[in-house]
Amino acid sequence: MTRDHHHATELARQLTHVKRPNPLLWLYHWRYEALGVTLLPYVLINVALQLGLVWSLVALVVAFNWVFYWRAARRHVRGRLRAIVVQHRLRTGFAGARICTVDGRRPAILWTRPVDGDVMVWLFCPAGIGFEQIHAGRAVLATACFASEIYVDRHPKYAALITLTVCTTAARPEPGRAVSPGEVVPLRAHS
């Protein structure tokens, strides 16, 4: 690819409107919130009908105490909530950093998982988005996710799969992490 062609592609990407998701994809993006709004009242009403008002309140107090006083449960709930927020913030960050194809499609978030205070995110990049664009937009993505650092790792076999590690705690140096796009070191989890 010539230098002028590369600049023309980048200019086209910068001028493109980022596509809004279709209604089904939008519903998928907000699946946790939609389930919370619909499923939680259903469960609470059924528990109240089955146990009665007093025993359902007792069960609710016990469940809340269990989550708030059991450290592992509290850490799990906090990590899951952080992973949900990171998904929404990454989609916004992709639009803000113009990490999209020329026709406006953003990378698809396949899965998020909390790991030791960080959030691991697996992405599928459509044709036209690669490791270099995501790596170059790390600062914008970190700001969007309220993170101190974002590490970008390639999948050793599939170029369209990229792993992000969103560090929500203070940055810590890790041996074997890629610092620049030319220094790609695959994660051990992928091998």
Task: Itemize the secondary structure elements and their pairings.
Blueprint: H1 3-15, H2 23-29, H3 31-51, H4 53-69, H5 71-96, E1 108-115, E2 118-124, H6 131-136, H7 138-144, E3 149-154, E4 161-167
Antiparallel strand pairs: 1-2, 2-4, 3-4
Helix pairs in contact: 3-4, 4-5, 5-7
What does this entry look like structurally?
The protein has 191 residues and is α+β, with helices and mostly antiparallel strands. Helices cover 51% and strands 15% of the residues. It is built from seven helices and four strands, in the order αααααββααββ. The protein has helices at residues 3-15, 23-29, 31-51, 53-69, 71-96, 131-136, 138-144; strands at 108-115, 118-124, 149-154, 161-167. Strands 1-2-4-3 form a four-stranded antiparallel sheet. The longest helix has 26 residues, at 71-96. The radius of gyration is 21 Å and the shape is elongated. The model has no long low-confidence stretch (mean pLDDT 80).
Radius of gyration: 21 Å
Provide the spatial order of strands within the biggest beta sheet: 1-2-4-3
**Percent of residues in beta strands:** 5-15%
Strand-pairing-aware structural class = alpha+beta
Query: Major beta sheet, specifics?
Result: 4 strands, antiparallel
- Report the count of strand segments: 4
Helix content: 40-55%
Topology as a string of helices (H) and strands (E)? HHHHHEEHHEE
Mass-distribution shape:
elongated
Q: Helical stretch count?
A: 7
The overall pLDDT, averaged over residues, is 80
Alpha-carbon distance between the termini?
31 Å
